[in-house]
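Lab notebook, bench 4. We co-purified these components, and the gel suggests they stay together. Before we commit to crystallization screens, I want a quick structural picture of the whole thing.
Request: model the full complex, all chains together.
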Amino acid sequence: GESVGLHLPTLSVQEGDNSIINCAYSNSASDYFIWYKQESGKGPQFIIDIRSNMDKRQGQRVTVLLNKTVKHLSLQIAATQPGDSAVYFCAEILTGTASKLTFGTGTRLQVTL
Amino acid sequence: EAQVTQNPRYLITVTGKKLTVTCSQNMNHEYMSWYRQDPGLGLRQIYYSMNVEVTDKGDVPEGYKVSRKEKRNFPLILESPSPNQTSLYFCASSPYGDRPAYEQYFGPGTRLTVT
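Here is the predicted assembly.
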């Protein structure tokens, strides 16, 4: 939804450059993290996940980095394309709560030509 | 095509007029959930259902009802909508009844405006 993005931090990146989207989480008891992509008018879509016993995980053009010391998560998108323009959310799952996702507020990525 | 569908996609209504937003999934998933999305707040869970006839409250259940009479359907009911329920609503489902948070599929969303 368009109005959801009005209050979001925005990252503007030129096509072909790499993007880095950051997320801070507050609960040290979280043991699993997921990045979602939400395009305008659509629901969130799974991108990549990472367990708390890992520091890095790579997918196709995406890499997630986890720094548990400072409770920070980042999503790196290589060679950003116009189709990557969307709102990106991190979500966490607390240890022992396999039914509950807690979402961050999101970052809007704008890809300029 | 495997998907979660929601109807209607857009709805404008008045305070106090009961409404139902339907959600259906064709993936035989055990778990279904409703979220609302508001500016600056991310997605917050309203209700969820681990299986047929089993429902439970999420973080923001006040003013909402749900039912799970069939595996594929999970309607969201607003008995007396108020303007603070103006929001974007998402239904989601998961194949994992024991760890649904790990893999969820979201519907396209329903934008509700209550005047």
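The CA atoms of residues 88 and 111 of chain A lie 13 Å apart. Worth comparing against the SEC data before the next meeting. The longest strand of chain A covers residues 30-38.
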